[in-house]
């Protein structure tokens, strides 16, 4: 019986080696840290608190003085450290914005049609809910880049495959 114990340890080591080779392909697992990125703020000036795309309050993140992040329409961060409800949906939509359009975003609010994003030029992007936010942003970028549209008031993105464009009151942001 004692000899079986000594045999068990080498068998366990061999089994672990086989699993490591077969399952992991002989590769080691390395940690990967993805830093949180601020997509909006609560408050303004030196009292501003950063908010992540997932609705997490990033109180530890120091915002640069020249940060031009959209401000969410609440006066103070929730004590839970996470957004909820309509403000969470706004954070998710803002978090999905492509980097090329972020400088043009002025604010967001929750209106009759759901999440609305206002661009600095005055154009309103109507997202509805936060589902498919990245697809809706791509659709908005396509409309904003369309050379046949010189000015508009809003883009309805409820159905991102068929965005509705209305108005003629605001000029499009400059192309960089």
Describe the 3D structure.
- The structure is a single chain.
- The protein has 176 residues and is of the alpha+beta class.
- The protein has one domain (38-171).
- 27% of the residues lie in helices and 24% in strands.
- The protein contains 3 helices and 8 strands, in the order αβββαβββαββ.
- The strands form 2 sheets. It has a 5-stranded mixed β-sheet, with helices on one face. Strands 1-2-3 form a 3-stranded antiparallel β-sheet, with helices on one face.
- Helix 3 (133-145) links the parallel strand 6 (124-128) and strand 7.
- The longest helix has 23 residues, at 2-24.
- The chain is extended, with a radius of gyration of 24 Å.
- The termini are far apart.
- The model has no long low-confidence stretch (mean pLDDT 83).
What topology emerges from the helices and strands here?
Layout: H1 2-24, E1 38-42, E2 49-52, E3 57-58, H2 85-95, E4 105-111, E5 114-119, E6 124-128, H3 133-145, E7 151-156, E8 164-171
Parallel strand pairs: 6-7
Antiparallel strand pairs: 1-2, 2-3, 4-5, 5-6, 7-8
Q: State the total count of DSSP E strands.
A: 8
How many DSSP H or I helices? Answer: 3
Estimated helix fraction:
25-40%
Distance between the termini: 78 Å
- Principal-axes geometry comes out as extended
Enumerate the strands of the largest sheet in spatial order, edge to edge or round the barrel: 4-5-6-7-8
| Category by helix and strand content | alpha+beta
Summarize the biggest pleated sheet: 5 strands, mixed
Q: How would you state the average pLDDT, rounded?
A: 83
The poorly predicted ranges are none
What would you report as the Rg, rounded to the nearest angstrom? 24 Å
Q: Provide the domain count.
A: 1
What is the strand content? 15-25%
Written as H for each helix and E for each strand, in order along the chain, the element string is: HEEEHEEEHEE
